[in-house]
Amino acid sequence: MVAPTPAFRxxxxxxxxxxxKMQPVRRVGPVNSTAVLRAAxxxxxxGPSAAELxxxxxxxxxxxxxxxxxxxTKGIATIDLDSRFASxxxxxxxxxxxxxxVFTATQFPTVKxxxxxxxxxxxxxxxxxxxxxxxxxxxxxxxGATPAIFVDEPVWLGTLLPDSVVSGTANxxxxxxxxxxxxxxxxxxxxxxxxxxxxxGTRGSWKQKVTWTDAATGRGELKLFAASAKDGTxxxxxxIPVTIRN
Length: 246
Prior knowledge:
mainly beta, Immunoglobulin-like, 5-stranded mixed beta sheet, 4-stranded mixed beta sheet, 16 strands, 13% helix, globular
């Protein structure tokens, strides 16, 4: 008798909707090296926790949607959901529920794109709104569901330590925005300008090390914003609660 492959606790993200944009949250589940994508999708289908719901995060995936299967071939994940996934909602709901699946799947470097099946049948036109899915879907197909300044790390209430790296993507004027970090007492720990690899119509990547000598630990706030090209006022403001540790 061959012993089963032992499971380990995998840490991954799932993506929910916050003010009509994608927001990652942290999940931990028992996975093995071949099951982490399935585990992440399974957690996505469970929806937000009560605390996340009270904070304004929600899911556009219809309740009761089941994951029928996942197959990864040459970087393309074929995700088979049951027909509940296509039930109810208009264009925004349909688009953002697709974005939740695509963002969750493509967090893994081995997944370059996503094909969708419903009840075992390949989908090329999704829902009554007629969303065309004629190629493997990537995050670039969901620019409208992506914040102008998108933070992929840390996740919602994720932990930041001195010398942690904050990262994501951005599509803002001149590829430049400001990052501020405050501790649980409201003290400003970091106030710096960040430069993405591209902007002004083209989404680029960015990362920024944040460091401090001492902070009031507990729940802090990460705030990012660009400056209006017209008058310099803050625009594209993103505020994410984080956990500060020294």
